[in-house]
Write a structure and sequence with these properties.
globular; Sortase, Chain: A
């Protein structure tokens, strides 16, 4: 009996140790699947009409703050539970198919930053569900490539290089590429700053200028502030 219990403890320890790796692999699989399906379909469709709306943007920023207030430990636990409870990549369960369709239908593009080896799907809305998978375009902000300010948010993670983990390495002059529904656009970073979560001034911008704003929490462990990266679209 003691041998059985010891073996069970060892197996449990191994599973707990492997949880982060399993979670990361599963998230990578989801991201690549979404982007591949979107790329095969989106450019045949007419671009969505998403324009800047100040009130909606403020409301979306408030919702984003609630998402970021979730402790990093809780985010890891939620992701791990999802990885364990759902079927592994490559399965064809109805729930997996439905989730993929929901995410794919809400995709608005792909963000790429070569400097930090970043490539993420952009989903419409910065909900917890969307940010578990990739980046989210805040409701009420412009579609990338359209006039106005496009605000894209993503989590940071203790795992190096995941999501917006390395966004603090971005500085003035760096280039961000967004492949959207109506083309591919490049933005040149002109400012980075750290603000309080309630600072809505970061959403402001010219209705005629095409700008991009990237948002994530900082510091990684406490998320008391927001790291903001601002960029302007290149001609």
């Amino acid at each position: 009996m003691k041998k059985v219990l010891s073996l069970m403890f060892i197996i449990s320890g191994v599973i707990l140790f492997l949880y982060p790796s399993i979670s990361n692999l599963y998230t990578d699989y989801q991201q690549e699947k979404l982007m591949n399906e979107w790329e095969a379909k989106t450019f045949e469709a007419e671009a969505a009409d998403i324009t800047f709306n100040k009130e909606d943007a403020k409301e979306s920023l408030d919702e984003l703050n609630e998402v970021f207030e979730v402790k990093e430990e809780d985010q890891v636990d939620q992701t791990n539970n999802q990885a364990v409870n759902e079927e592994q990549p490559g399965t064809d369960s109805d729930s997996t198919k439905k989730q993929s369709e929901r995410n794919k239908s809400s995709m608005v593009g792909v963000i790429e930053i070569d400097k930090i080896n970043l490539r993420l799907p952009i989903l419409y809305g910065a909900s917890q569900g969307n940010l578990d998978v990739g980046a989210g375009l805040l409701n009420g902000t412009s579609l990338p490539g359209n006039p106005g300010n496009s605000a894209i948010a993503a989590h940071r993670s203790r795992s190096y290089g995941r999501m917006f983990n390395r966004l603090d390495e971005i500085g003035a002059g760096d280039v961000v590429t967004v492949r959207g529904q109506n083309g591919t656009f490049q933005y040149k970073v002109y400012e980075t700053l750290v603000v309080k979560p309630q600072d809505v001034s970061v959403l402001s911008g010219s209705k005629d200028e095409k700008t991009l704003m990237l948002i994530t929490c900082t510091p990684i462990d406490t998320a008391t502030h927001r790291l903001i990266v601002k960029a302007k679209q290149l001609p």
